[in-house]
Design a protein that fits this description.
six-stranded mixed beta sheet; 11 helices; 33% helix
Amino acid sequence: MIDGISPETLAALERAALPDFPRWQQMITATGGCAHPIRLVGRRLTFTNSLDVIDSYRTADEPTGYLLTACGNRRASRCPACSATYRDDTYHLILSGLRGGKGVPDDITAHPRVFATFTAPSFGPVHRRREAGGKTLPCRPRRDHPLCPHGRPLWCRVPHSADDSQVGQPLCGDCYDYFGAVLWNAHAGLLWRTFTRTLPVALAGLAGLSRAALRACLRPSFAKVAEYQARGLVHFHAVIRLDGPDGPTSPPPAWATTGLLADAIRIAAGAVQLPIDDPNPDDPPRLLRWGGQLDVAPVHLGAGLDGVSDQRVASYVAKYATKGAEASGTVDRPIRTLRDVAYLDVTEHARRMIYTCFLLGDLAAYRAVPLRRWAHMLGYGGHFSTKSRHYSTTLASLRHARAAYRAEQSGHRRTTHDPDSGTYITVQEWRFAGSGLRRGEAHWAEIARERIATARHIQRERLKNNRP
């Protein structure tokens, strides 16, 4: 430390004194303050259809010698800036499927839709947070004070707070079914796909129609996100909607009500069974099912007494789209070797689940399941955010529209060429030149991110309050 200046502050001041800093600052602002920007070198040429060059860009002409682009990581724990963009995109994707817009007609609000939460079954009692009437209740009060076969108490009178590290930890780690928990996570994605195939069967049964007749008049659509519970198991939040045979542009039949959809979801979820091999070859196959806590609530255009509002649902889903298994006490990066597990800064419950992933990954029965690869995810390797084709727009479409807008704005600044005078032809060549922030740059990247986050917050508040 020099004259009271910390090494980090000194490094930031030294970076700001370099001649390429103004241009670098423009680049990092353009990435939104990305925590792990990607450095590219190369060039881009834009021609008209008559091969006249109207725009030329080379990183060799940049003061920095490279171009920065955002990493695009969706995890808030890895890059707060890029995850904020991903969260906002997910919010608009979900909301457009509830209110319309971005290619979805506005009368989609009249279609039956629900917000459903699918949980995992129990693999052993864990510490939990209980609350009623704003008061925190004891975890597991039991008057008979039972003990497990290992002599450990199966009761707990502690009222756990929301940030208590004990929440989600097993009351007895030796009794907990770690094999079952890891295998459930590993097959949760397949369990969801099985549900989506079973739901039309349940709808057809309730309507008294054949599958073919149902397809001719009704189409279910969905968008879902995965969330980790404190006990290290994923559960799914899903918006499920009923459309006509052509998707959101056609209304469903009058008999297709919200109540019918809710009943069909409960029937389909209860009917889903997925047999898998048991780790012990002498034991019968395991049957994976959804947990008993299935919540289904109607989604309203505004706040409703017997349901949830569409804006609240979109915000809730978008929030969890940027989180991963680190929310349950594990790490957010792949684990390369088994010996690394002992040195991880994780909860003991997460460590045992990770060890179980490595153990099961060596068994022939699970060679097709990359458990070692997804050990840091406690076995879950599915997508965190998925949707059916006809639910609404796509994340790719939102990204392309944003990129096209930025390119157009940038193009207007670079050239006065009339876009109506011919066709653009762009040729570009890029090469990866590194990633991450260099010495002294993290401070300025965080300032850029905070400024952009503040501007977004102000804009959201204005829209919420209908102010110009």
